[in-house]
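Sample A.
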Amino acid sequence: MESSINAMASKYTNVDFDKIDVDDLSDVAQEFGVQAMPMFLLLKQVKEVERVVGAKR
């Protein structure tokens, strides 16, 4: 998945792509309700727009 995310980050330069390690940032994972990985959370102006759990390229 990482190569796909990197490709999107290169293509969509006006979008911020961030990756967190839920083991290191468990408080952030808890704040956003991470229950499975991978999980993609799309935010716009600090509000959740979409949540995708699981991976399909």
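Sample B, a different protein:
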Amino acid sequence: MSKDISLRKDAASNKMYPKIELIRIVKNKSGDIFIDNTKKANGRGVYIRPTIEAVEKVRKTKALERNLKTSLENEFYEKLLEEVKLNWD
């Protein structure tokens, strides 16, 4: 019996990828936005591929901001880039 792989849409490319290959960014009820390493936190989740190109693309197109219905500071994107470089390379 094989378990189905959960697919999620990458906000940068609009393509579907296995959930485990993506970074989840969450906006919770109190409006906090953070990188959800557990992939289980409550709130609105948006997924992106853990590549520098994907982070740059969602920054340029404001895809995360549209999906989370909020504006994001430059510092958040810097933190996201650090996360990609540290944990996904």
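Observation for Sample B: The radius of gyration is 13 Å.
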